[in-house]
Amino acid sequence: MDGGATFDDAGFRQRSPEPEPMAATVASEDTGMRDATPVALEDVGGEVVDSIIISHDDARFLIGSRGSTKAKLAKVSGARLEVSAVDPNAENGNQRLDIKGSAAARAKAKRYCEWVLRQRVGTIVVDTSTQSDDVTIMDVPASCTAYITGHAGSGLRRIEENNSSLMFFGKPTTDPEDAPEKLIICGSRKARRGSELSVMSSVERRDPGTYVGEDGKLKVKFDQPGDGLNDGWGFDVFPFANDEEVKFAVGAQVGFLAFSASFFDL
């Protein structure tokens, strides 16, 4: 998060940045999903469809519990995802993943599906040499990684749900090989900024002073794709003086993470 918003002198209120050149971000390192067999593009009823053959286990992982993962991938990418058996009579046979939507939405959906499936077998590697406007890379202290992730990923899933984003820890290709993983946040500008603020607020409660100095100012400025475009979109950040102010603002039964992700909707 290098370069972007600043605090003014009155109350340390952070506002959207002035126009700046867009920073380079990430795209998928691989060209296709793990163990997936691509099928030629089809034009079904005037609609272009990307069809990919995947294993039965991969299909179950993409669908998720009660379809939750598939629904999340569709919402974040803007594409429609459908999974069906190649041979309905075959037990545990291959599945067909159909991705529908605009060219941009289909490309995002394929990339996101690949990253989700990669979680099953090891570290996710993202290519930071290619520009992408839907991904933010965030440094999270190693001491807070497990805290942010939560049991079985429940912490990240909660932030994703609150902000309509996709999040995972991965290794950017431009980092040294021995560098720690970074948090990858995918989605719209609003979704990424909301997720970023949620993570920051949680880390600050766990390890005060990580992102915000004693003067109330960010130690490292915001920097994500889309910042500084001067297109009418923006955000504000209002630091609270103490926990009592936070409790009063969000109510006794409302989680801090949910609040921090929603209050900047202008």
Care to describe what's here?
The chain has helices at residues 56-63, 68-77, 103-118, 142-149, 154-163, 189-206, 243-250, 256-262; strands at residues 6-7, 14-15, 27-28, 37-44, 47-54, 80-85, 95-100, 124-127, 135-138, 166-172, 182-186. With 266 residues, the protein is α+β, with helices and mostly antiparallel strands. The chain folds into two domains: 6-26 and 128-262, K Homology domain, type 1 (Ribosomal Protein S8, Chain: A, domain 1, 2-Layer Sandwich), CATH 3.30.1370.10; 31-122, 2-Layer Sandwich (Ribosomal Protein S8, Chain: A, domain 1), CATH 3.30.1370. The strands form three sheets. A five-stranded mixed β-sheet has the order 3-8-10-11-9. It is elongated, with a radius of gyration of 20 Å.
Can you lay out the helices and strands and say which pair or pack?
Blueprint: E1 6-7, E2 14-15, E3 27-28, E4 37-44, E5 47-54, H1 56-63, H2 68-77, E6 80-85, E7 95-100, H3 103-118, E8 124-127, E9 135-138, H4 142-149, H5 154-163, E10 166-172, E11 182-186, H6 189-206, H7 243-250, H8 256-262
